[in-house]
Amino acid sequence: MDTNLRKRIRAGDHGAFGDLFDAYARSVYNHAYRLTGEWSTAEDVVSLTFLDAWRLRERIDEEGGSLRPWLLGIATNVTRNTRRAARRHAAAVARLPRDETVRDFADEVAGRLDDAAQLDVVRTTLAKLRRAEREVLALCVWSGLGYEAAAEALGVPVGTVRSRLSRARTKLAKHRELSQTFGQMRGDRTTAVGPLREGNR
Fold first, then answer.
1. What's the CA gap between 53 and 177, in Å, rounded?
2. Alpha carbon distance 9, 14 (integer Å)
3. How many helices (H) and strands (E) does the chain have?
4. Contact 20, 5 (CB under 8 A)
5. Which of 91, 116, 197, 200 is deepest in the core (most CB within 10 A)?
């Protein structure tokens, strides 16, 4: 089935591409949100990912399994580009004359989250990681890809995926220990990020 879908997409079959979108749009969205922490940005990443996927469809191998790793790889690249563009935009805005106060929408967006406090803990923890480590963590732990699939998505060797994930886990464990110690010193019940599971390999 996957091989037939690959061939149809390569041939420019709009129906097959629609099936691809229906099957994996949610997965791409979740991956983008985990990397960015922003609902609206994640939605933009989904649109740009499938636009790129359509543009790059002839590069798909005719033989193979699920196209999910390929799509998540595109989404990872799109996220990088989107964040770079956002940084450039923010820098440009910062250089503009400040004639009036610009409304801050951060609190409004945070209000849409079910558990803003928990999200803050996760963001603080993930900020300790390098971008490459966050990407591997998002693919292997949250999206449930195996080492080989994550390597395919990122275009790197399997060994690189393993080492990045190992470094990420070490840093997260260290941060968790520090958070727990700090919470005990304050006598509160601060909840640290729980252990991350890789899932089946």
1. 41
2. 7
3. 9, 0
4. yes
5. 116
pLDDT per position as a tens digit, 48-66: 999 999 999 999 988 888 9
Which range has highest mean pLDDT (19-23, 109-113, 117-121, 122-126)? 19-23
Percent of the chain with pLDDT over 70: 67
* Tokens coding 176: 């968790």
CB 146 within 8 A of CB 136: no
Which residue, chain included where needed, has tokens 């041939």?
A: 11
- Residue 4 CA, distance from chain mean position: 28
Q: Is 75 helix (H, G, I), strand (E, B) or coil?
A: helix
Burial letters for 152-168: b for 16+ Cβ neighbours within 10 Å, e otherwise? bbbebeeebbeebbebb
Question: Distance between CA atoms of 76 and 139, rounded to whole angstroms?
Answer: 9
Neighbours of 128 (CB within 10 A): 14
- Among 195, 65, 184, residue whose Cα is nearest residue 125: 195
On whether the CB atoms of residues 162 and 146 are closer than 8 A, the answer is no
- Residue-wise pLDDT for 82-98, tens only, equals 877 766 656 666 666 66
- The first and second tokens of residue 115, run together, are 């558990």
Query: Does residue 107 or residue 38 have the better pLDDT?
Result: 38
Category of 43 on φ-ψ map: left (φ > 0), alpha (ψ -120 to 50) or beta: alpha
